[in-house]
Amino acid sequence: MTTPSTQFWGGDVYLSTVFPLDSAGALQPPTDLVYEGLEVDGARTFDLTPAEGSYLVNVGNGRLRDTIYRAPREASRAELRVGYSQLDVIAALSGVKVYELAEAKLIGRLTNLQGSEPDIAAVLTQQGHDENGLTRYLSYIIPKGKCVPIDSPFNENALEVRYTMTISNSKKEVWGEAYTVSRHGFTETGYLDMITEQKPKVVAWKGNGYDENFAFPAGKLPTNTSKISVWNWTTGVEYTGGTINKLTTHIDFTSAPASGAIIIAKYEY
C-alpha cells in the first residue's frame, strides 16, 4: 500500500455519508460503540456548485487597464439526488423523529423546525482510476454545512429524493485538527478534495473513561494500519506513538480516553 498520485478520473456517486453535528461542531457518537454516520443509500448524482468570484475592471482611454478579482460573495451549494426515501436519514437531517402508529412509521415534513435544521458534515465519494488505470477514490469532505431533504413528486418518473446542501467555512477538520498555514496553507475551508487507494471511511466513538479498546465496524475493516489516523476531536490532537496501538480490527489505547471524549478515525477499507 502506498500514497496515491494526485491524478484521478471517474464517474457517478459511489458512497455518500452524512453526520449530524452537535452545537460545538463535533460528530455525535452516542456511546463507545462505533458510529458510522448516516449512509445515504441509492445515490445517483452529486452536483457541486462552488460560488464564483467577481471582477472589478478599470477602463480608461477606451481600453481595459486593469482587473481585480474579488472573492465570492454568494453561498456555495450542492445537491445529492438519490433513488430511495430513507425516513431515518430525512428525520435526522430535519431535526425530527421517526415515530410509529399501528405498525406504520411516520415523520413530520414542513415542520416548525424549518430553518433550524442541524449542522452536518458529509463525505461524498466517487470511484475511478488514476493516470495508470488503477482503481482510486476521489472524495469531497464537507466539514460543516446544512443538508435539507426534499421529497420526490409522484409522477411517471422513478422516485428521486433531493438533498440540497449549503457549505459553510470551517476552521477544523471533521476529525478535529485545526487548519494552519504551516501544514495546510490555509486557516478556513469550505470543503476538501481527497484521493485514496481504497474506500475512505470516517467513524467515531464516545469515550466513557474506562474502555481502552474500540472496534471498527465489522465488514468495513481497515486494509492496512498505515492508513488509520485517530484523533481526539475535543483537543484536536492525533493519537500517535505509545499512546495507541492501531490494528485492522480495533484500536487499543494505553489509557482510556476521558469520559465524553469524541474519538474519530479516518481510514481506508
Taking all Cα atoms into account, the compactness measure Rg is 21 Å
Termini gap: 12 Å
* SSE series: EEEEEEHEEEEEEEEEEEEE
What do the pLDDT scores average to?
95
Counting DSSP H or I runs of 4 or more residues, the number of helices is: 1
| Biggest sheet features | 8 strands, antiparallel
Poorly predicted tracts of residues:
none
| Helix amount | under 10%
Supply the helix-strand structural class.
mainly beta
Q: What is the tally of beta strands? A: 19
- Work out the strand percent: 35-45%
Rough outline: globular
Secondary-structure blueprint:
Elements: E1 9-20, E2 38-39, E3 43-49, E4 54-60, E5 63-70, E6 77-82, H1 87-94, E7 99-101, E8 104-106, E9 120-129, E10 135-150, E11 161-167, E12 192-196, E13 200-206, E14 213-215, E15 229-232, E16 237-238, E17 244-246, E18 250-253, E19 262-268
Antiparallel strand pairs: 1-2, 1-9, 3-6, 4-5, 6-11, 7-8, 9-10, 10-11, 10-12, 13-19, 14-18, 15-16, 15-19, 17-18
